[in-house]
Amino acid sequence: MAAEMNGIYRELAAIRHTDPRAQGAQTAIRKWFDFLNRHFGNYTPEAFKGLGQMYIEDSRFTKNIDQFGEGLATFMAAAMAEFANQTEE
């Protein structure tokens, strides 16, 4: 599970300077959504969006995520919000 999680973080870190609304970013963040739902319960799109906000509002999350690349938490939060908005429509 840790290897899969770290792999997704690395994939997202590699594209963190792109538009979080772009298809590549949305495809990658979908992997994160699916991973969380497989291993940690049932996240609705709205809960997923809220989790993304926590990534940037709680410095403990930010520090942990940004170890894969500075700015990753901010990128993920934006991509997660876009994913949730698209999924809820």
Automatic annotation (TrEMBL):
TipAS antibiotic-recognition domain: residues covered = 1-82
Q: Name one Pfam family in it.
A: TipAS
Q: Which domain of life is it from?
A: Bacteria
Q: Which InterPro entries match?
A: TipA-like_antibiotic-bd, TipAS_dom
Q: Which SUPFAM superfamilies does the entry mention? A: Antibiotic binding domain of TipA-like multidrug resistance regulators (SSF89082)
UniProt name for this protein: TipAS antibiotic-recognition domain-containing protein
Task: Output the lineage of the source organism.
Answer: Bacteria, Bacillati, Bacillota, Bacilli, Bacillales
